[in-house]
Amino acid sequence: MSRYDPSVIEPRWQKAWDEAGAFTARHDPSKPKYYVLEMFPYPSGRIHMGHVRNYTMGDVVARFMAAKGHSVLHPMGWDAFGMPAENAAMERGGHPKDWTYANIADMKAQMKPLGLSIDWSREFATCDPDYYGQQQAMFLDMLEKGLVYRKAAVVNWDPVDMTVLANEQVIDGKGWRSGAAVERRELVQWFFKISDYSEELLTALDGLKDWPEKVRLMQANWIGRSRGMQFGFETAGAPQGFDKLEVYTTRPDTLMGASFAAISPDHPLAKELEKDPAVAAFIAECRKGGTSAEEIETAEKIGYDTGIKVKHPLDPAWELPVWIANFILMDYGTGAIFGCPAHDQRDFDFATKYGLPIRPVFVAEGAEDAVLDAAFVPMKSEKVRYIRGFAGVETQTGDEGVAAAIAHAEAQGYGRGVTKFRLRDWGLSRQRYWGCPIPVVHCAKCGVVPEKKENLPVRLPDDVSFDKPGNPLDRHPTWRDVPCPACGAPARRETDTMDTFVDSSWYYARFTSPRAATPTDKAEVEYWMNVDQYIGGIEHAILHLLYSRFFARAMHATGHLPQKAIEPFNALFTQGMVTHEIYKTTDERGRPVYHLPEDVTSFTLGDRRVVVLGDVPPPDPELIADVDAWLQELADAGSLVEVIPSAKMSKSKKNVVDPMNIIAQFGADTARWFVMSDSPPERDVEWTASGAEAAYKHLSRVWGLCSRIGEMPADHTGTGDDELARATARAIDEITKGIEGFAFNKAIASLYAFTNTLARANASTPAMKEAMRTLAKLMSPMVPHIAESIWSYQGGAGLCAQAPWPKADPALLVDDSVTLPIQINGKRRGEIVVPKDMAAPEVEKRALANEDVIKFLAGQPVKKIIVVPGRIVNVVV
RNA sequence: GCGGGUGUGGCGGAAUGGUAGACGCGACAGACUCAAACUCUGUUUCCGCAAGGAGUGUCGGUUCGAGUCCGACCACCCGCACCA
Prior knowledge:
Number of strands: 36
Radius of gyration: 34 Å
Mean pLDDT: 89
Distance between the termini: 63 Å
Largest sheet: 7 strands, mixed
Helix content: 25-40%
């Protein structure tokens, strides 16, 4: 067997798999199916280590499940619509379509050498007219079902570029290109009625047993069901038609602590009052800045006293002022609240700023009324003593207080208990070109008219330019002009396109029949759905996954998915990022300059790590008399590099490692092995050059071992056959459990251990060959190419990729005796070896007879002995 | 600001409430070599010559026993609805 040369074996095996059609997904009713899916990539043009990690994980699962006898579906596609393509067109000219398809070709060419077990015959891009045409068909079905509607909503408006900005294009409240102060502006837009499913999406989370607890919790908090009370304040001095002000509160028990009422700047009453220039000026102030919750909630709280009063529902003589406040959101509740500064921090800050009264309603159990220097906000499950209560007993929990207050309001008739959700409807309109066109037409006579299905797809026009900001569809000379599908009169196409989250909300279903003439094919979704294992980043914990869950329900409602697929992902795994150190210097004007890992050299000097620019040989420490002076010299020359601790690989920080370079240097198996070893898959993994080399060295060692075993004389005998068989069984057991439990790093640790055992084993030639074949199969999900070479060299039948997973003989997994540590007062002081099933009293006797124990006890009386069978003995003195 | 998560040797990490540091990297020592690299063997949590002691972000609690459970705090990461 020759030297380990991945550049030779990897293409050879990839060809062999292709020719055998090893990864073609087959609809085979005689086998259990398994659908493994990694979140599909945005075609940026370059794959990065995060992709390698994500797809290797999926590949390990896919290859493992195939070996376990499943018919596996492991597809790949492209999340191809979105802003970067338009930005590229603006910056470099060209067309988003050309840019995107070129990127897809480039990225696919980079993914192929990884040797992933993907069924490429099912590939599609969301920007393929065939895909988005089916999406448009579903949009029309959903429109018909009442799951889509139009309403006004706020967007980020750049007043200089006259265009809508995405949140990420708003930097410090300013437009990223124009630098102009961004405003919030209302626009009529399309919405999916996800709120129809709030309750359902929340309660169904309980059934997602194989989803991470944290994701379910995040979704539950996002949906945000709350039980509260809604009531109408009677107003005094309000404009006509506003004699009631509806407010919603989750703390009606604090009603006697009310200090003011506040409405959102977007509230109808605020809009009515905007006729007053002073109010208009204040509301304009509130509209400054972007639409993101982060920006709104971290903005300074400001308010405007309208002069209007409301009457307290429990005491009509008690009047509260009505303020307009920038931190009240129109989207939540009724867009109006009553403020109770004593028990809400935001209200407290507001009241302090504007000199409004702060009246405590309850105090901690056993405490006296005291002046507050911050809002007192205990958990609702905690008991408190009400000093200004009006319902329920004096001392009760917050929850009981709320329930009593609602009951009181309902009995007296001034309010009612209601359940509200934080979840808002999903705004899908985007004022951009590179997205799925919304297939409707606006007719002066008929209003909004759906496009006819036979006219789908509504294709994006190719003749567009990006020399001006804004949506080219909006200024296209002809594309917009169409006859009304209903009356035939001249009408206008909708120029908004869909949010790219729509594209990614159903691609998993399309993979089951990617060329079907309808969005899905009944028999195929029936066989392949659901996705058995979904793998992707935690950054998608809420939006993408929640939208997909909604979309699957909407697809069921419109006949595109069976009932069983309304939760499309049976199991979810969220993997961590690939990180790398950042290398930084500063230019003469003090601005940071970042450097690629390959452009710096790192060495150690004493206990110090020094990184310098360029590919230079490490200095001889003996030649440096004064290290500090020498470093200062380097720093003055500008070649001393500052090392910033690991962060997510990003182009702007240049802390990126190109997988193509790693594959060229070490091969795909090394890259795959590295990203699966060491770090647990859910955690971030730091890419290090030494780690990659170590992975390569190990694979070379395994290759050498295989070679050595291959050269053993056929009649060689040894004394270690039994021991090797036990080690093999243990390895099978551990690695199987590791892969099943997504503990790939532990599976790899077991592979290292088994390799070491095999290298040291003194067993017969047939036993060694057998163990080597098993090792190859056990390694094959992670490093399929080298495994295939070893498999064929050791006489394995057929392709390793199509061989069944080995089974561990249970009889070989049990040990007869066990080593028990002995603790004295919880500290380990000795150990004894006893038969596995020895009775506790006998274990006690042996433990106390142990030399170390006798020495440590030094005659002290023993108070108690705890024997945990098979685990530990603890002697308490 | 709000919601969620993470924190263990020089480094990545392992550990059903039961021997903290498996496995790997790095470092050190030895073998091989004219020499270096490669490879192989061994050592490697810290303090201490040793006996022994300390130790899982910090402080406190529950337990015979806590990295693991509970409470408070600190640091970092992810998300916040138009980035994908």
